[in-house]
Amino acid sequence: MKIAIICPIPHLNDFNLGSFHLIIAQYLKDNKYASFYNKNGYVIVDNGVFETGKPLTAKRLLQLCLQIGAQEIVLPDFFFDAKKTLHVVESFLDKFGVRPNGVKLCAVIQGDCFKTFYDCYLRLCDLPIDVIGVPKTIIFADRISVLSEIQKELDLRKEYHCLGIKHVNELEHLSKLNFIRSCDTSLWFTSSFVGVNLMQQKGTVFARPDNFFYCKLPANRIQLAKENIEFLRRIANATENLHS
To answer: What dotted CATH number matches 2-242?
Structure first.
């Protein structure tokens, strides 16, 4: 499973972030951020709803993606709202078509109960998108249980990306699901920020510090952060990110 290491802007050149990235569209207004990821490996442009509470429009996402030479966008989604999410995805497809300018499309499953969530998944399977996004926050069950249900009627025409990682134990479970293409995480930073070695606290959830994308680690925690990144890569079996 590939793993995208989400990194604050001040540290972009301090760590080996690999060549598989997920970036937040709203921060591309920062020249350092945009320049770093411009044609830098495989880049997914996320709509930013988790960070800002409101996704960027699909049209603007596509524009930004093309500007920096990214390969994939996460279409707008709305927390727990399957109807609104599907409407935006379908409207985008009607307007821009399949793989506009070669850009792969990821759409995120949403729903406020298992039925609406699963119905949303089935509808996305019928649409000409490339990647199914599985959100970090699901209000009616834990993500591993939901993925186990999805696996029973898995659409292998799609790729699957898990947005965010709650803790190391969840990543260990995800790494055993061979249909998951990839995930992304800032867990390496949030744990290092408070001085925690992830090998010692596998079930702990760490909150992002305020102003995460402009946050800096103390100098004495840089090495810990490097170790936490490599630990997460080993769990995800994603060491190929170092070279691919």
So the answer is: 3.20.20.105
